[in-house]
Amino acid sequence: MVCSLFDPLGLVSLFILPAKRIMQKLCRKKVNWDDEFSEAELDCWKNWTKDLSKLSEVQVNRCIKPAHLSTIVNTQLQHFSDASQYGYGVAT
């Protein structure tokens, strides 16, 4: 089964990064597709899958302009980013 995620704004990246870290650790250990996980790795994966159900609670309004504002006369594009040993984040 192939799974893809359409998230151009990166709004669910906080949910995805832990799974990517688990997969990265397994790849570094050269765990094959059919190999069994260690108990610790399996616990990490199960905890992530439990948290995954919280994705259904994520809601994002299409329009971020509060209703009480009148016509927009000026817009700006600002960019922020941060990185760590495990991943990076960007907000535009």
The proportion of residues in beta strands is 5-15%
- SSE order, as H and E? HHEE
Figure out the total of helices. 2
Task: Report the average pLDDT across residues.
Answer: 81
Unreliable runs, pLDDT <50, ≥5 residues? none
Rough shape?
elongated
Number of domains: 1
- The first-to-last residue Cα distance is 33 Å
Q: Which structural class is indicated by helix and strand composition?
A: alpha+beta
Specify Rg, calculated over alpha carbons. 19 Å
Give the proportion of residues in helices.
Answer: 25-40%
Largest sheet: 2 strands, antiparallel
Strand order of the largest sheet: 1-2
Beta-strand segment tally: 2
Give an account of the 3D structure:
This protein has 92 residues and is α+β, with helices and mostly antiparallel strands. It has one domain. It has a two-stranded antiparallel sheet. Strand 1 and strand 2 (88-91) form a beta hairpin. The radius of gyration is 19 Å and the shape is elongated. The chain is built from two helices and two strands; from the N terminus they run ααββ.
What features would you highlight for this structure?
92 residues, alpha+beta, two-stranded antiparallel sheet, 2 helices, 2 strands
Write the layout of secondary structure elements.
Elements: H1 13-28, H2 39-52, E1 80-83, E2 88-91
Antiparallel strand pairs: 1-2
Helix pairs in contact: 1-2
